[in-house]
Amino acid sequence: MATSQNSGNPNGATFRSHRVLPYRPQPVGPDGSNHPNESVFLELHGASRLVIQHVSQPRFVLTVTLAPHEAGTAITWAQEFEDSAAAARFRHIVEPANEQNLDRLLSVLARTVSASVPSGAG
């Protein structure tokens, strides 16, 4: 079993990866608690659209789209829960976790872009 601090983890969380198929990352909270997690990729359209179905509780479908925008790239992040009661129950967790995930994505993209700009350019 390996623990990873890779991108996509909300602040303070790591993922414990079990080397079995299908791949099921297991989030480990800052307090050491384990949270079962299983997702299925429903769609992957190049670098423009990703749809993931979270089959563990709480069940939801996450759709992420990337589109050209005059300021760079527009990201749309839509998370649809199985029912509105579940959405309301988990809102206090999901909203800050999604903000943290998007902040980490922006940080990774900024480092990637700055690393790809030749020295002395720009």
Report on this structure.
With 122 residues, the protein is α+β, with helices and mostly antiparallel strands. It has a single domain, classed as Alpha-D-Glucose-1,6-Bisphosphate, Chain A, domain 4 (2-Layer Sandwich). It is built from 1 helix and 7 strands; from the N terminus they run βββββββα. The strands form 2 sheets. A 4-stranded antiparallel β-sheet has the order 4-5-6-7. A 3-stranded antiparallel β-sheet has the order 1-2-3, with no helix packed on it. The protein is globular, with a radius of gyration of 16 Å. The N terminus is likely disordered.
In short:
By secondary structure, the chain is α+β, with helices and mostly antiparallel strands. The chain has one helix and seven strands; from the N terminus they run βββββββα.
CATH architecture tag: 2-Layer Sandwich
Low-confidence segments: 1-7, 15-21
| Main sheet characteristics | 4 strands, antiparallel
- Classify the secondary structure makeup into a structural class: alpha+beta
Helix count equals: 1
- Name of the level-1 CATH class: Alpha Beta
In the CATH hierarchy, the third-tier topology is known as Alpha-D-Glucose-1,6-Bisphosphate, Chain A, domain 4
Helical content stands at 25-40%
Please supply descriptive tags for the structure shown above:
122 residues; alpha+beta; Alpha-D-Glucose-1,6-Bisphosphate, Chain A, domain 4; 4-stranded antiparallel β-sheet; 3-stranded antiparallel β-sheet; 1 helix; 7 strands; globular; disordered N terminus
